[in-house]
Specification:
Elements lengths: L1 H40 L4 E2 L22 E2 L12 E2 L2 H6 L3 E4 L2 E3 L5 E9 L4 E5 L4 E6 L7 E2 L4 E6 L1 H14 L6 H13 L4 H10 L5 E5 L4 E5 L7 E2 L4 E6 L3 E9 L11 E6 L7 E8 L9 E9 L10 E6 L9 E6 L4 E3 L2 E7 L6 E13 L2 E6 L6 E5 L1 H10 L9 H8 L7 H22 L3 H16 L2 H6 L1 H10 L6 H22 L7 E5 L2 H4 L2 E5 L18 E5 L1
Length: 562
């Protein structure tokens, strides 16, 4: 009896313990499933702490490294997936500045265009040969010489003129009896541009002049001399081109999206780098009816008075034009040019989304007109929003390091969209040899892992582009990339990432430019760019790897020659 009682007590205790453990676990399991269901209902996204670009709708393992995924909000203190935070110290050290976007009335804004001074073609004169002959002596032999009207330019021997002088001497004897014959002989000499005084002098001396002088018809600058001493000339052949620089043309480049903003008679204020304290005011007198199909530019012309000949053909200029708008009170949003980054055909900025904390996100905007050092914003920003105005590249680098959307992360789209239809302009062909030299110097600095030197050399590359404002506008992606390498706030590895983009762009330009004066090798490292591979340019066949330096100096191979 005692034995049965003993087993009964043990059975009762077992039932109680079983309920305590397994019953509670089943409830916890149901509770856990309920929580997961709630999470799914909240559309929680899961990411990897080591690879923030991974976003999945449910928890699991990272497909790259195998780590457990965590809720996306946990990676950025509850921030949205594309937002990121910077510390106050980082902002202070990088000199990052922000401004609050406001509206500006267009009444005081100016449309700014760039261009250059060219000769006034209406003031050009070409002196041609009026008879066959031979240049006996040139008195003006160098282009650029200043000549005055009536100045002796050359002496020419012409058999026809020698014969005509003999006819004049004969006709002189019949001057009274046959005046019509005499007059016809003189007119023949006049048709060859001999003056009455020259003809009178020949007639009075009765000495045949074998070398007849040629005098300047106008005052100006000799801009072309297509003949030389002893050369034979034909009737109608140009001898001298003389340009009067008392008036010159300012030719302005107008991109087609701005053509609607200019009109004939619009006031223009011209400025030059040569005379920073002077301004030249005039008005637009001509707008080219044709747009260049390669550059998408039309020319606008301003005639400038130049009595002291300060303005010389070839000078680069900028022009501030008055607004061509009927409604002066239309409000518009403008931001500094320094706030804008270009990714292919798109323009982006960084918006500070929290006024209390340094939280930023990338925002695509649509640009309008360029007005001095500002851009008009057509779409993408509202009044009162705060944006990064200085240090934009540094903020972009911070976004990249945190795995957020950045200019670098959109690189592939940049290359395909903007560089796929690249046209190598005359300006680029002129400066391209210098850019290659600067590029090779940057490459060599990265081979030596010398970040400081690479930054300095990137500045030289950037300056070569900035010498011509059209290069900056036409190759903005190239300018942005070299500006990023020139940023003193990024480290060596970040410079190498930007160098990868620079290399892609330069290779694209070289392929479009065609043959060069020297052999250029395209080299490839399969381990760069996180084992995706990357190319670079070299003037030597042996491999010197700029992406790893001394760590893997000879890693790579030649994949092409230009």
């Amino acid at each position: 009896m005692k034995t049965y009682s003993k087993y009964g007590i043990i059975l009762i205790i077992g039932v109680i313990l079983g309920y305590f453990f397994f019953g509670r676990n089943e409830g916890a399991s149901h509770e856990h499933e309920h929580q997961v269901a709630e999470n799914n209902e909240d559309n929680t996204m899961w990411t990897c702490s080591m690879h923030p670009q991974i976003m999945q709708p449910e928890e699991g393992d990272c497909p790259i490294c195998g780590m457990d995924l965590i809720p996306a909000s946990a990676t950025a203190d509850g921030l949205a997936p594309e937002q990121f935070k910077m510390t106050k110290n980082a902002i202070a050290l990088a000199n990052i500045e922000t401004i609050t976007v406001g509206a500006n009335t267009s009444e005081n804004n100016k449309l700014q265009l760039s261009g250059k001074i060219v000769a006034n073609e209406n003031a050009n004169q070409i002196q041609t040969a009026h008879y066959d002959g031979r240049i006996e002596q040139l008195f003006v032999k160098v282009e650029g010489e200043v000549v005055r009207k009536g100045q002796l330019l050359a002496k020419v021997y012409a058999p026809e003129l020698v014969a005509a002088q003999q006819e004049l001497f004969s006709a002189k004897t019949f001057k009274k009896t046959q005046p019509e014959l005499y007059k016809a002989v003189r007119n023949k000499l006049k048709n060859w541009k001999l003056s009455d005084s020259q003809i009178d002098k020949i007639e009075a001396s009765e000495i045949t002049i074998e070398s007849l002088p040629i005098y300047a018809n106008i005052s100006g600058i000799v801009t072309a001399i297509p003949v030389e001493d002893g050369g034979h000339i034909k009737r109608g052949m140009p001898l001298f081109k003389i340009t009067d620089l008392k008036t010159v043309w300012a030719e302005l480049d107008v991109y087609e999206q701005r053509l609607s903003e200019i009109k004939i008679g619009q006031k223009a204020l011209i400025k030059t780098n040569a005379y920073t304290d002077k301004e030249f005011e005039s008005a637009i007198s001509f707008i080219d009816p044709m747009v260049n199909t390669q550059t998408r530019i039309a020319k606008a012309r301003v005639v400038l008075q130049n009595p002291k000949e300060l303005l010389k053909p070839g000078m680069f200029i900028t022009a501030d034009l008055e607004e061509n708008k009927k409604n002066d009170k239309v409000d518009e949003i403008t931001i500094p040019k320094s706030a804008v980054l270009w990714t292919g055909k798109r323009s982006v900025i960084y918006v500070k989304v929290s006024s209390e904390e340094a939280v930023f996100e990338m925002r695509e905007v649509t640009l309008g007109r360029a007005m001095g050092d500002k851009y008009e914003i057509i779409k993408g920003l509202k009044q009162g929003e705060e944006i990064v105005s200085q240090g934009t590249f540094t903020v972009d680098a911070a976004a990249q390091l945190q795995g957020k959307k950045s200019m670098m992360h959109q690189e592939e789209e940049m290359i395909e969209s903007d560089m796929g239809e690249i046209v190598v302009t005359k300006e680029m062909k002129t400066v391209l040899p210098k850019l290659i030299k600067s590029y090779i110097a940057i490459k060599d600095a990265l081979v030596e892992s010398d970040s400081e030197t690479a930054t300095m050399l990137a500045k030289e590359f950037k300056n070569q582009l900035e010498e011509n404002q059209k290069l900056v506008e036409q190759y903005q992606i190239l300018f942005n990339t070299i500006s990023a390498i020139n940023n003193v706030d990024i480290n060596l590895e970040e410079q190498r990432e930007h160098f990868r983009m620079l290399s892609k762009n330069m290779i694209h330009i070289l392929n479009a430019a065609g043959s060069m004066n020297e052999t250029i090798y395209i080299q490839h490292c399969p381990m760069a760019n996180q084992n995706k591979g990357a190319n670079w340019i070299s003037l030597e066949k042996n491999i010197q790897n700029p992406y790893f330096g001394e760590a893997m100096l000879t890693c790579g191979s030649v994949v092409d020659e230009l």
